[in-house]
Amino acid sequence: MAVESLIFDIDGTLWDSRALVAEGYAIQLRKEGLDHLCVTAEDLKPLFGKVMTEIADAILAPIPVPERYELMERCMETENRYLHENECAIGYPAVRQTLQALAQRYRLFIVSNSQCGYPELCIRKLGLEKVIEGHLCFGDTGTEKGETIRRLMAEHHIQSAVYIGDTQGDLEAAEKAGIGFIFAAYGFGAPDHWDLKIEKISDLLTAPI
Fold first, then answer.
1. pTM of the complete model
2. What are the tens digits of pLDDT across the range 50-69?
3. Do 105 and 98 meet the contact criterion of CB atoms below 8 Å apart?
4. H or E segment and range at residue 109
5. Given CA atoms 129, 134, 139, 144 in this order, what sign does their dihedral have?
6. Could you tell me the residue ranges of all domains in the chain?
7. Cβ atoms 22, 40 nearer than 8 A
C-alpha cells in the first residue's frame, strides 16, 4: 500500500467499551425512569460503528423524535463521564505499544462515528496523546464517516492513507474516501472484503502497508 498515514476507528479496533457504554447509558436511563430501555453489551455489538441517530433509533425507538435524540445526547454525556471515571482496562492487548511503534513510521489519526469527546477520551485512557496527530468524529462534522475521513485528510494535508476498522460501514467509509481498508478481524463486524486483514493490532507492525 505504501502510505504515509494510518487512520484508526475506535470501537472494535482500539478498544472494546461496550460493557461500560451500556452501563453509562443505564445510569442515565434509570435516572429518567426508563429502566426498560437499558441495553447490554451484546445488544450494542451490531450498533457500534453507527452514528448517534441510528443507535438512538435502535435502542430508544419508543421515544418520539426529537426527544429521542435529546435523550441519546444525555445518555452519551453520562457515558463519557462514566468511561472517564472508570479504571477498567478496555484497550485491546498491546494497543499503546503498537501505536507508539507505528508512530515512528507513520502519521496516526482517528476517525469515529462517535459523539464529541469520545475520541479524546479514548486517546487519554489509552495513553496515546503523544502519537495521535489529529482526530474527527460524527459529533464534529455531522457527516457520514467517508466524508469525515476526507475532511480529516484535507485538514491535515494527508497525501496517502489507509483506514483500519472492523465493520462493513468502515469498509464503505474507506472506499468513499478513496483510501485502502485494513480489516481488524478481532473486532465486532464482518465486512465483505478488504485490502488487508489483521488478527490482532500488533500485526500492523509487520503488515505490508
1. 0.88
2. 888 999 999 999 999 999 99
3. no
4. strand 107-112
5. negative
6. 5-15+91-205, 18-85
7. yes
User: For 110, phi and psi rounded to 5 degrees?
Assistant: -130, 135
What SS3 state is found at 35? helix
By the 10 Å C-beta count (0-12 exposed, 13-18 middle, 19+ buried), 62 is classed as: exposed
* Residue 206: burial class (beta carbons within 10 Å; 0-12, 13-18, 19+): exposed
Angstrom distance (rounded) from CA 195 to CA 39? 34
Q: Which CATH superfamily is domain 5-15+91-205 in?
A: HAD superfamily/HAD-like (3.40.50.1000)
- What region does 180 belong to: left with phi over 0, alpha with psi -120 to 50, or beta? beta
Please enumerate in sequence order all residues whose Cβ is within 8 A of that of 10, keeping only pairs 6 or more positions apart, or say none: 110, 112, 114, 118, 119, 122
Give the whole-angstrom CA distance, residue 174 versus residue 129: 24
Q: 127 with 96: CB under 8 angstroms?
A: yes
The whole-number pLDDT of residue 135 equals 98
Maximal CA-CA distance, the chain: 53
Cell 455489538 appears where?
45
Residue 77 DSSP class: H
User: Measured between alpha carbons, how far is residue 115 from residues 120, 144, 187, 198 in Å?
Assistant: 10, 13, 20, 27
Cell matching residue 193: 472484503
